[in-house]
# Entry
Amino acid sequence: MTWIKKIIAGLVIAVMATTVFQVAIFRYLNPPFTVNMIYEKAIAAHKKMPFKPRSYEWKDLEQISVYLQRAVLASEDQRFMNHHGFDFREIKIALKDIIAQKGFRGASTISMQTARSLFLPSSRTLARKIAEAWYTVLIELLWDKKRILEMYLNTVDWGRANVGAQAAARAYFSCDAKNLTAKQAALLTAILPSPHKWSAISPGPHVLQRQARILKQMRNMPVLK
# Structure
């Protein structure tokens, strides 16, 4: 049994070292693709299904509209600058809502979503949730907040095979990410919870309501420099 324990310990150490190296590298290098982009292509090939290549083009934070930066903070993680990857206040509220049978509400921070969109496939498993938490810890330890937000804006799934702010801006508004207006930024952010269900081109009443709320909250959000 001792040798089995040594093998398991060795595997755990190897995985931890690999993930630390991954996160450290991306502190300085911009990813050419995300794990989920490769995962989706592999699944489509395995099932012999048609696959539409994802539109993806990296943009530095300075090349992304400050309106979009403020919009995602307002909508996705208003305490982004104050937590260390996990917003325990939101988690507590989410748990209370579940207990009270008020439905499920997300409590993922931008850091958690970045870990998910960059390093992990879109499958819904316990193993992925554990890996997401581990990557979130590493991201918060090795990157600053500006890098986390920059990575999030470039790797988040915006629906219709668009990954990142530049692809979304081009697809939905025929402009570059840096030229998005406040209303456009709020509308793009309004569809993020369900980018494959909701539309920024033909927004329904619920999406327009979300857009209006985000617009009001944006002015209180910081611009990271």
Notes: The chain is about 55% helix and 0% strand. The CA atoms of residues 115 and 135 lie 6 Å apart.
